[in-house]
Amino acid sequence: MGEESAFRISRKSIYAVAALAGTFLTVGWLLLQNSSAPFAAATLLSAGIIWWAAAFAYSNREKMSEMHCMMNGMAFGMMASFAIGALVALPKGDFMLGIIAGTAAGLLAGIPVAEAGGRLARMEGVMAAPMGGSMGAMLGVMMRFYDVQLFMQFFFVTLIFIMYEMTKANESHCKCAVPSGLKYFGLVVGAAAIASTFMMAYGTGTPSGGVVGLQGNEVQEIAMKIEPWGYNPDQITVKNNVPVRINLQASPQAGCTRSIVFRDFGVSKTVAAGGTDTIEFTPQKPGTYQFSCAMGMARGTLVVQ
């Protein structure tokens, strides 16, 4: 019995140290990125919201049935990986890092709360982690093209609501109440998370769009960089009936933006990550035209005069 107890304490310590190390490494990486301090704060707040609910589930795991442990493993593994994956991928559009960080967070959250339910319950936490990490990272990359500030408000409200509902389900199942200290911690962290979305500017460094002036009489040549968040420049002005040549250079981290489509001119290219390519066409009619990635998320404007 003594050896088993020592083993349990040792395993608990390992989980705690791994969770703290993972959180601080993730936050440190975000702080090293330009304009990512708000996302570092959001990651800490999200970890606090998830920890609040997971701590209650973990402390009462022995009172729960195998099926309930399986539910906790899947739910906490999925939500932790989804939340952290989205927040890590959002600042710079790094899909791969989002998956890795999200999966690690899901494993650290899902396995401990499910352990008392046995191997099958534990597997729920293990399987949920990479799925949630992948979906979270994908969401983070996609949301860069929309209203990030509004998304963060929705994100925190939804995360708090889900953690609250999970905690109420665990309270009902184990017939025990959340300790007052843990309850107040959850209230403070939740309120801080909501307040942060009104006090912090969640920018992603996407360009507002620089206009390329009219160039040349034979060929209008434009250099365009393909970034993870979009195209730079994303607003171009050219002359009518003069050939246009756009020299594309893709960032090694670029994702779906590597496919660029000028539908009105019937041309498109998919550039290799870190590679270069060229698009050529001749505008025949003045007007304002759109170009975008193949998925229609990253967009730009071409004005023909």
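That was protein one. Protein two is written in the same sequence-then-structure order:
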Amino acid sequence: MYLFPFSKIKQGSDIVIYGAGNIGRQYAKQLELTGYCRVICVADRSKDSLSIDGVKVCHPDEIDYADADAVVIAIENKNVADQVKADLEDRGAGAIVWKIIPFEGADSFAHMKEYVSYSSDNSSVYSQKLTSTELSDLKKFLAPMKIHRFDKMNLIRVGGDADGGYVMHDDLCGKVAYSIGIGDEISWDKDMADRGYDLFMYDFTVDKLPFENDRFHFFKKGITGSRIDDPIFCTLDEAMEQNGHDGLLGMILKMDIEGGEWEFFEKVDDKLLQQFDQLVFEIHGLLRSDRWAYYGACLERLGRTHSLIHVHANNYSKYALIDGLRLADCMELTYVRNAGQEFEFDDSTLPRKTDRPNIAGLDETDLGRWNRLIDRINSKG
């Protein structure tokens, strides 16, 4: 199944879906069920069907693209999608979106609307009783996931109002930030550049940035926790040495590398992390109970140098409802360096006012009194 790129399309837009195949049909069905935006028509050269879920299928030559706020390309093959994009540009189409998101959250379209609203149908991943080993491992994972606060903490949003923006402490007075994992969403990087930071940006999966900025320094490389005999990868300390940042304090680190963060957490040196005032991560794969103890050990390592001040559930991911606690498969974490601060546990309700849904128009995942829910699970025998 493929998820419609909700975060790339403004709610209420009039759009054209290009491609009447499997992906195009899935997009049309999701939009019918959610009512997120209106599909003017589906463009397809073969026109094997007259309509999809009541939406007319038209040959691309028959469409006036000026009537559409955006065209969403529903084709998996990037080379073909690039050809379609070039053709659409020649035809005068405005916004053109191509973002393929494989999705395993809903097992059928009949549950799509309930899924995006987070019904109990989807949240019962761990409705069965946890084994004693799973419960023990879950406690190890959740113990370092409690949030903290400190005197004069002031949380703001940095970046856009959807996926790619993050909640951070407002003390952003440094000059250098590392952004690991870029994709095509760099609103956080742009915001940080506007605040006076030079951005050192690493991603081996893209050839270039969506747009340029004098403060952007892009490297087509991946960051790993340990050295790999492949020139397309390097460790963070190697990157910092190459950029002349050995020993530089007051930096910011943002990382979203689709699961690769865990090996980084396991291997990174405490002394290196001390060079960063704030850490912002998106962590993945949290519903894998066989890895909970490992995750807990990795996060305990981060806690030696930094304290967790904010947690946000990425609202496109499924979650497990475990004794009232919603554990999303993908979550965003913000840390502040321990040095010079006195921390206490924070009893705040999550999400906060500064949070935004990763996919606009879909409900946030309510984490409630996060610390209290963790304490309740940790109190179980």
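The domain at 6-116 is CATH 3.40.50.720 (Rossmann fold). Keep this in mind for the problem set.
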